[in-house]
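A common beginner's mistake is to predict each chain separately and then try to dock the pieces by hand. The better habit, illustrated here, is to supply every component at once so that their relative placement is modeled jointly.
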Amino acid sequence: MTIALYVIAFSALTVSFFKSREKTLLALKKAWKSFENILPQFLSILIIIGMMLAILTPEQISKLLGSESGWYGVLIAAVIGSITLIPGFVAFPLAAALLKSGAGYMQIAAFVSTLMMVGIVTMPVEISYFGKKATIVRNVAAFGFSFIVALVMGVLL
Amino acid sequence: MKEKMIKFIKRYRIFFLLLIINTAVLVIFPNLGKKAFQLTGSNLLEMLSVLPPIFILLGLLDVWIKRETMIKYMGDNSGIIGVLLAFLLGSAAAGPLYAAFPVAGVLLKKGSKLSNVFIMLGAWSTKKIPLILFEASALGLKFMLLRLVMDLVGIAVIAYITEKALSTNDKKEIYQKALKGN
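With all components supplied together, the output reads:
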């Protein structure tokens, strides 16, 4: 998919360049500017995640999320998912490994759902675009929604 | 020159502080500090590999798409087409959720409806196509499909709730932020 994105971006850039050089240069300038805009927060987030994941290992997470852990485990899973930020291709194998090592579907569903939809570490970035109110409402709603997902998964799987 | 330097340090001060903390950890607890730096490094590389095309497309979108076009397809009266486009845009994305915020900024700047932007964010956060495929292979097709169906509803509901929670003034502020951004 990343390759596909590169192909699309490069093709679009080529078409744009033949249509107008000035506009293409402007587009690249804007691209850089919006990237540089979030770069300080972006780098900070990466360091926070690095430290967090160094302390909170997969083994520790799986201990906390056993299938007998019930709603307490779901809550812990949702909190861990909210504060951590793990790339998808790491998160899903991790979730699969957690399932194998005894975590329940409910807990895993809560973890996966909050991991993707709730971002506490990235809140400053979100606030800079949407303001405090929208950011808090969106994250709280997504947090609550993750419990519904967990409940349904727990009943059906 | 000096002013520029001060501005640079001010913007990056939290990053520098965290870097110092992590280095301190490295000195006091070498194993933990080393692991943290390694994780940060590999995450950084991964992000740097997905972000360039997103930002290039973002720049092109900003330059080529007219405000009127955006308003027509994703604005206040865009109806179901706007909703579908928002879902598609978010699903076709790659990269973490925070890369979606600048994209959201440009959509707002061009006059997209706020709820459509929230739908795009929702789809981006949890329904990216490459991620769905990956989810199915790691956790099973049933798990993925169940979550997909629930998320489709959830994304729409969360977008609706978030928009309803905002006053007219809050919304104005969000659009102003977006306009100032570039």
